[in-house]
Amino acid sequence: MKYTLDTMPVLDAYKTNCECPLCHLRILCEDQYVDSMLGAAYMEPDCRVKTNEVGFCSRHFELMYNRRNRLGLALMTHTHMQEVIASLKTILAEGGSSSRGLFSSLRGGKAEGGPAPKIRARMAGCVICDEMNASIERYAYTIAQLYFTNSEFKAMFDQSKGFCLPHLALVLEMADRTLSDRQAAEFKKTLSALEIENLKRIEGELEWFTLKFDYRNTDKPWGNSRDAVERSVNKLMGACVGEDAQMPAHND
Fold first, then answer.
1. CA dist 108 → 45, 103, 113, 244 (Å)
2. Please, what's the largest Cα pairwise distance for the chain?
3. CA 244 from centre of chain
4. CA-CA distance, 72 to 37, in Å (whole number)?
5. Predicted local distance difference test score (pLDDT) of residue 103
6. Is the N or the C terminus of the chain less surrounded, counting Cβ atoms within 10 Å?
7. How many CB atoms lie within 10 A of CB 17?
8. In which region does residue 53 sit, left (phi positive, over 0), alpha (psi from -120 to 50) or beta (all else)?
9. Strands, E assignment, the chain
C-alpha cells in the first residue's frame, strides 16, 4: 500500500473499528488545530490576519482556554476584538440609517435587514472549524478514492461500521463529485447496505438497553448494550457524547 499524508490517518482510523472513522479523524484534527493555534502559529502573520478577521466559535474558544496558554489566547483575542470593534462601528452606523420601502411603510412594516443579521454574520466564522472541515473533506475524498485503488482498504471498508449520518452524507456527496458514474453507483450501493446494517445493529442494542430495566431481564447479560445510548446519539449526530467524543488527554 502506498502511504500518503492523507491515507495514513484514514487507515489508522479504520483500524480502530469505531462507529465512524471520520468522527475519529475529526477529533484528532480538532486537537491538533487547537494546539497549533496556541503554539507558534499565533505569531505567524498569515495566521494572525485570518484569526483577526474570522475569529473562533464558542467551542474552540473554550478548548483553547482550557489549554491554559492564556498569553497566546489573549494576544489573538485582543487583535480579533479590535477588528470586531471596527466592523461593529460600521454595522451600527449603517443600521441607523436604513429606510423602509414604500409598500413596507404603507403597511407599517419594519425595515428589512438592519444591524442584527450583520452582527450575527460577522461573528459566525471560526478558523478552527474551517480547517477541520477542509481536512475532513480531504479524508472523505481519500476514502472514496482508496475504495477503488487499494484492495486492502476495500476489505477494511467492507468490514467497517459505516459512518455517522452527517459524515455519511459527506462521503456520498464526495463519491458523486469525484468518482465515475459506474464507480459512484457501486460505492453508494455498498455503503448504503453497510450503513443500514449497522444502524439496525445499534438500534437492536439500544432496544436491549431499555429492556434491561425490566426486572425480568435483570440477570440477563448486557451484551454490547451498556454504551448503546452514547453510540446511538453519536451515530445520528456525529461524535458528541461519551468516550468516542473525548479529546486526547493533556497535561497542560
1. 50, 9, 16, 53
2. 74
3. 13
4. 8
5. 47
6. C
7. 11
8. alpha
9. none
Q: Which residues contact 81 (CB under 8 A, 6 or more apart)?
A: none
- Cell numbers standing for residue 135: 481536512
What are the angstrom distances between the C-alpha of 16 and each of 22, 24, 26, 134, 200? Answer: 11, 9, 14, 22, 21
CA distance 252 to 65: 11
* 3-state secondary structure at position 112: coil
| 76-98 residue pLDDT tens | 999 999 999 999 999 999 875 55
d(CA 156, CA 147): 9
Q: Which amino acid is at 43?
A: M
Is there a contact between 20 and 235 (Cβ–Cβ < 8 Å)?
yes
Sequence-separated contacts (24+) of 209-218 with Cβ below 8 Å: none
**According to the model, what pLDDT value does residue 127 have?**
96
Residue 192: count other Cβ atoms within 10 Å of its Cβ. 13
Calculate the CA dihedral of residues 100, 106, 109, 115 and round it to 10 degrees: 10
Query: Which residue in this structure is represented by grid cell 502573520?
Result: 45
